[in-house]
Amino acid sequence: MAVARGEFSSRFGFLMAATGSAVGLGNIWGFPTNAASNGGAAFLIAYLILTFALAYPALMAELIIGRHARANAVTALKSISTGPKSRWLGLTVGFIGMLTVSFILSFYAIVSGWMIAFFFDSIARLLGLESASQWLTLDAVPRNAIFVVVFMVVTVMIVSAGVKDGIERWASRLMPSLVIILVLLTIYVLTLPGAMDGVRAYLVPDFSRIADPQLLVDAMGQAFFSLSLGVGTMLVYGSYISEKENLPFIGTLVALLDVGIAVLAGLLILPAMYVALSNGVEIFDETGAFIAGPGLIVSVLPALFETMGVAGIFVAMAFFILMTIASLTSSISMLEVPVAYAVEQHGIGRHQASLSIAAVITVISLLVVFYFDPLFDLVVTYTTEFSQPMLALFFCVFVAWIWNRNEVLEELKKGCPDAESGLFWKIWPFYVKFICPIAILLVYFQ
Ligand code: TRP
């Protein structure tokens, strides 16, 4: 079963793939809406602190385990376990992670499908195709089902092409485009009337909120979701990093890029909401709170683009391409988790593994489309609020309590010979051992 393992060909390739995974709907949709409904910059500050204090150490745990084991999450956790009990725990965490990420992908594909539909809508409007435009923007089961399938097909095509020729190649093409589109859109929106009110709402903190338990729970969930933690995604990507790389350094870059893009997206979405307000679009719901969640992206923003005339069509096009790219570079990292397992552990070909696993996930996703009301929120809540932080906690436990400390250090030293005397090694081991698990539990039981 000696399958040749893939490896990212360069640091840039890894950075694009890993930031591609991290940057997704969570940054451009989740973060701004969370910030909008949680006191603007108060949320931003909590999110920044939690990202660097909790999520970054957990990210490092996954990257180090992955690169050391050079294997998928299940095999990796098994290989660093030290006895039958930790072996069992490793298997369990690996499998639950794989299940969790598959369910995350099943709802992610639905939302991503909407993004593709809205992108096609901008083309339909450009061509004056009224009825197509109506069909594309009406929230209906057939449309949602079709675009789930479209999105999953593209995801499979990339993943089945392999680590270097699929994931790395596409992430390296798509991520720079994403940054360019995001910057241009942000600059444009900031010049529109009303935008500065949005900047104020975003950057002037409502400090009375910062100790609010709900804000902390949301910020932690956001931080873990955004860095794709707990389910083995970053572990698998870590397993494709060259031994020459300095892990703490590239882990920091990934976290900084992820946070940076979220902050920038906030500077796009919140001002856009206030521009919409000044154009007469409703941005608050009956309770006076911001329209967050799906309503924001699929009703407020399209309504805004509508008020902008022809320019609005192009802005819509750019915006929904941005969202589609962000989703795609994330979905491939999700699918890679079970695919890597099937390929390495069961010797199934990559093509066949990606296709059959994606088919199963698509079926789950379609079930959620058909029974949207009971299922969608349930799947989102269960996977992201319940399963993910718990699993991230177990990754910390594994690296700090189960795995041999010297092996951890040896792994770090590979790309960073003086790791032992560095700041990272002074702080991080203590951190993942005590602070992360306790803090995760504390926030969790809020
Ligand atoms: N981080 C991505 C986002 O912000 C989503 C994502 C990719 C993810 N892989 C993941 C979330 C694994 C949880 C687990 O949208």
Description of the molecule:
The protein has 446 residues and is mainly alpha-helical. It is built from 18 helices and no strands. The protein has helices spanning 11-22, 25-37, 41-69, 73-80, 84-126, 130-137, 141-160, 163-190, 195-203, 213-226, 233-238, 247-278, 293-307, 309-346, 350-370, 372-402, 405-414, 423-445. Helix 3 (41-69) packs across helix 4, helix 3 crosses helix 16 (372-402) and helix 13 runs antiparallel to helix 14 (309-346). The mean pLDDT is 93. Bound molecules: tryptophan.
Short summary:
The protein is mainly alpha-helical and 446 residues long.
Strand content: under 5%
Ligands in the model, by name, code or SMILES, are: tryptophan
**Cα separation of the termini:** 46 Å
In DSSP terms, counting alpha (H) and pi (I) runs of 4 or more, how many helices?
Answer: 18
Q: CATH topology, what is it called?
A: Hydantoin permease
Total strands: the figure is 0
Mean of residue pLDDT?
Answer: 93
Descriptive labels:
mainly alpha; globular; Hydantoin permease; 18 helices; binds tryptophan
How would the blueprint of this fold be written?
Layout: H1 11-22, H2 25-37, H3 41-69, H4 73-80, H5 84-126, H6 130-137, H7 141-160, H8 163-190, H9 195-203, H10 213-226, H11 233-238, H12 247-278, H13 293-307, H14 309-346, H15 350-370, H16 372-402, H17 405-414, H18 423-445
The protein binds tryptophan (TRP).
